[in-house]
C-alpha cells in the first residue's frame, strides 16, 4: 500500500522529536529507479513556505531521487533562515542517501511562523534513511499526520504497473490544494512531462475541488514520482485515469477526516453555462458559513443555497434556479418546491444539486459542515 | 432618537403575530413632509427578495411617503406570489395612510422561502398606522429585530437639522450590505439625487465594510428619507458627513451584536497600491475561518493572516509583509517579528494591521470571531 505499493520505492517514518507528543514526524520516500521522473503541483497561495519554494526548483528539473517530509512545523513565514533550513534538510538527505540535493524534494506541515528544530530534524533524516524499506509506505503515511485522525493511503493497479500514494490533511482544505501533503508513486515508465500532464489533470478535478473550510495553505504539495521499475509504458489515458483515481480516493479521505466535521457535503452544480461557472457556484455554496451551520443542524435550508448562488456572477436567472437536497427538489424556479420535511438528513453524506438552467456543464465540489468542534479544534491548535 | 429624531416623521412598531413569540414584528415609518425625497441602497445579491424588487422600483421615483418593515419572514425566494404579497402590503399601507402605493417602500427580514401570513400582516399595518407617533422611533426599531439582542438607533445633529436612523442585523453580514434593514431620516431639505450621493458614499465605507460572516443577504435595504421639515438646506459636505456618521454608528452596533461573537475585529490594511486592493485584502483576512477561530481562542495567529493575504491578487511581495495584532508587530518582512507573547488578547476588540508595503492607500473592514455559539445559533435558527 501507500508509496511503496509500486516497485522501485522504499520509505520510512520515524519520530525525530519535532512533535512534543513523541509521535512519528519525519518521513522519507526514495525512488530506487531505474527512472527518477517526477512532477509536482504546489499551493496557489502567494505566501509559500520555504519547502514549497525549494521543491518547485527541484521539480523544475523533472527528476526526484527522494522526498523528505516532516510534520511538527510548516517552516512557513520563516524568512531566509527558514529557506536555509530546507536547503540543509535536502543536503542532509542527499548525503545519507548518496544522491544530489538538487533531486531531493522537501515538504513540511504544522504551525506557520516557527523555525524547525534542525538539531532534531537532521538526525531524524539519518534515522529514517536507516529504516528505509520496500514495506515502509504505511509508516511514512503515519509520520506526516498532524491533526489527521487516520493516515491516508490509496493504490490503483494497472496492467503490469501500479500507482500508489499517501496524503495528510484535515483542515485548511481549499482550492489551489489543501493543507495537504501528497506523494504518489508509480513503477510505470512515464517521462516527467507526461507525469506532469496526468498529475495536473487529476488534481484539477479532485484535490482542487475539496473546499473544506475555504482556507488555502502555504504548504500544499502533491508529488508524483515514477521509477519505471515495472518496465511497462502505459497508455496515456489509462495512466491518467489511474492517477486520477488515486487522487480521488485520497481526496475523499481528506473530506471524511476534516477537522470537527460531522457531514460530508457533495455539491453538484448542473446545467451551467461552462465548467468554470459551475465550479464558482459550487465553491460559493461550499463556503457559505450559514449553510454549513444549517446542514450541521440537519436543516435542509435551501434559502441559504440560493443566497450563496446569488453572490456569484455565473449565468442564471434567479427565477429559474432549482435546488435539490438529498434528492428532494426543495426549490423549484427560485421558489418553494417539494416539501422540505421529505429530506432525510440523518446520514453523514449530504448531496446538494444546484440546477442553473443555463447550459450543459457541471462540476462537483466537496465540503464539510461547520461545527462547534471545528471552532474548538482551531481555536486551540497552537496553544 | 431613531427615525423620529428628525422633524417631519412619525413611526410605530406593533405585534402583528408574524413571530410565534408574540414580539413586535411590524414597523411603519411615515414622512409627513413637506418634502418626500428619498434614496435607497439594496443588496448586491442577485437573488433578491420580493420587497427589494418592489422597493427598488419605488425608489426609482425618488419619492417615499412611508416604509413598511416586517420581521418574522424575509419574503425571499417566494416567486410571483411573494411579489404579490409585497404589492398588497404597499397597497394596504397606502390605503390606511391615504398616500400612493408607488411611494410606499417595503422591507422584510426573517427566514427565506416562506410566504408571509398576509392575514396577520395586513391588519398589523392598520394597527401600526393607528399607533403612529412622532415619538415612535424606538418602537419601530424594536419591531424589526430578528436575532438582534438589542435594537439599534443613532442620531447626529447638524446646524438646524438632524439625521437619525434605526438598523437591524445580527448575522449574514457581508459586503454588498448585511442582512440588515436600515431606515435613516432627516429633516434637512435635500433633493433625492443628493440624498443618493450622500447615502452611497456613506454605505461604501460603513455597512459595506462590515463582513461578519461573509454571507450576503437577499434582503438588505438601506433607505434615507428627507422631510425638509427643518427648512434648512445643508451644505453637501456637512450633510454627507452626518449621514456617514449615522451609518458608521449603526454599522458598529451591528458588529457588536453579531451572532455568537465574542470579539469585534478591526482589520486595517495600510500601504496598499490602491483602495480596492486594501479592501480585498482586508476582506480576505475577515473571511478566514481558521483565523477567526484562532482569535476566538485569543491566539494572535499571524500565520493565518499571512495565509489569507496570500490568496489575494493584491500588489505585495511576501517577504515585505508586516502584521501587527493589537499594536505588536508579530510579523515583520514576512517572517517572525516581535514576541507574540506580548500581544494582549483579553479585550473584546482586536485590531489587526496588515502592511502591504506597496503604496499609500488603506481601508478598514470589521468582522467578528467564529465561535461555537455562532454555530449553535445558525444550526438551530429555522427549527
Automatic annotation (TrEMBL), chains A, B:
It catalyses: L-glutamate + acetyl-CoA = N-acetyl-L-glutamate + CoA + H(+); N(2)-acetyl-L-ornithine + L-glutamate = N-acetyl-L-glutamate + L-ornithine. Substrate binds at residues 146, 168, 179, 259, 378, 383. Keywords: Acyltransferase, Amino-acid biosynthesis, Arginine biosynthesis, Autocatalytic cleavage, Cytoplasm, Multifunctional enzyme, Transferase. Pathway: Amino-acid biosynthesis; L-arginine biosynthesis; N(2)-acetyl-L-ornithine from L-glutamate: step 1/4; Amino-acid biosynthesis; L-arginine biosynthesis; L-ornithine and N-acetyl-L-glutamate from L-glutamate and N(2)-acetyl-L-ornithine (cyclic): step 1/1. Its EC number is 2.3.1.35, 2.3.1.1. InterPro entries: Arg_biosynth_ArgJ (IPR002813), ArgJ-like_dom_sf (IPR016117), ArgJ_beta_C (IPR042195). The record marks 109-110 as: Involved in the stabilization of negative charge on the oxyanion by the formation of the oxyanion hole. It is found in: Cytoplasm. The record marks 178-179 as: Cleavage. One of its GO terms (cellular component) is cytoplasm. The active site is at residue 179. It is an enzyme of class 2 (transferase). One of its GO terms (biological process) is L-arginine biosynthetic process. GO terms for molecular function: L-glutamate N-acetyltransferase activity; L-glutamate N-acetyltransferase activity, acting on acetyl-L-ornithine as donor. Its main location: cytoplasm. Catalyzes two activities which are involved in the cyclic version of arginine biosynthesis: the synthesis of N-acetylglutamate from glutamate and acetyl-CoA as the acetyl donor, and of ornithine by transacetylation between N(2)-acetylornithine and glutamate. Belongs to the ArgJ family. Heterotetramer of two alpha and two beta chains. This is Arginine biosynthesis bifunctional protein ArgJ. The gene is argJ.
Amino acid at each position: 500500500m501507500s508509496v511503496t505499493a509500486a516497485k522501485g520505492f522504499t520509505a520510512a517514518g520515524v519520530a525525530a522529536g519535532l512533535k512534543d507528543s513523541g509521535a512519528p514526524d519525519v518521513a522519507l520516500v526514495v525512488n530506487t529507479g531505474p527512472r527518477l521522473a517526477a512532477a509536482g503541483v504546489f499551493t496557489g497561495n502567494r505566501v509559500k513556505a520555504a519547502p514549497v519554494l525549494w521543491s518547485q526548483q527541484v521539480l523544475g528539473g523533472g527528476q526526484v531521487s527522494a522526498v523528505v517530509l516532516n510534520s511538527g512545523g510548516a517552516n512557513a513565514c520563516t524568512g531566509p533562515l527558514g529557506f536555509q533550513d530546507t536547503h540543509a534538510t535536502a543536503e542532509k538527505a542527499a548525503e545519507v542517501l548518496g544522491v544530489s540535493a538538487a533531486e531531493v524534494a522537501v515538504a513540511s506541515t504544522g504551525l506557520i511562523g516557527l523555525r524547525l528544530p534542525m538539531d532534531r530534524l537532521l538526525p531524524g533524516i539519518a534515522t529514517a534513511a536507516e529504516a528505509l524499506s520496500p514495506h515502509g509506505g504505511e509508516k511514512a503515511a503515519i509520520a506526516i499526520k498532524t491533526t489527521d485522525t487516520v493516515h491516508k493511503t490509496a493504490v490503483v493497479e494497472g496492467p503490469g504497473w501500479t500507482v500508489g500514494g499517501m496524503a495528510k490533511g484535515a483542515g485548511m482544505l481549499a482550492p489551489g490544494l489543501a493543507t495537504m501533503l501528497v506523494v504518489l508513486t508509480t513503477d510505470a515508465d512515464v517521462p516527467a512531462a507526461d507525469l506532469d500532464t496526468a498529475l495536473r489533470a487529476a488534481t484539477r478535478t479532485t484535490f482542487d475541488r475539496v473546499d473544506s473550510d475555504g482556507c488555502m495553505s502555504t504548504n500544499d504539495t502533491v508529488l508524483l514520482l515514477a521509477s519505471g521499475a515495472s518496465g511497462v509504458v502505459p497508455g496515456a489515458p489509462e495512466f491518467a485515469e489511474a492517477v486520477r483515481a488515486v487522487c480521488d480516493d485520497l481526496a475523499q479521505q481528506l473530506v471524511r477526516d476534516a477537522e470537527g466535521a460531522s457531514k460530508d457535503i457533495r455539491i453538484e452544480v448542473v446545467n451551467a453555462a461552462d465548467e468554470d461557472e459551475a465550479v464558482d457556484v459550487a465553491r460559493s455554496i461550499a463556503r457559505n458559513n450559514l449553510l454549513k451551520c444549517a446542514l450541521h443542524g440537519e436543516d435542509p435550508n435551501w434559502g441559504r443555497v440560493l443566497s450563496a448562488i446569488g453572490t456569484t456572477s455565473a449565468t442564471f436567472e434567479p427565477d429559474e434556479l432549482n435546488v435539490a437536497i438529498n434528492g428532494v427538489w426543495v426549490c423549484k424556479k427560485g421558489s418553494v418546491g417539494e416539501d422540505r420535511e421529505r429530506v432525510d438528513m440523518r446520514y453523514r453524506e449530504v448531496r446538494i444539486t444546484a440546477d442553473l438552467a443555463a447550459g450543459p456543464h457541471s462540476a462537483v465540489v466537496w465540503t464539510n459542515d461547520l461545527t462547534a468542534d471545528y471552532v474548538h479544534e482551531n481555536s486551540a491548535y497552537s496553544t
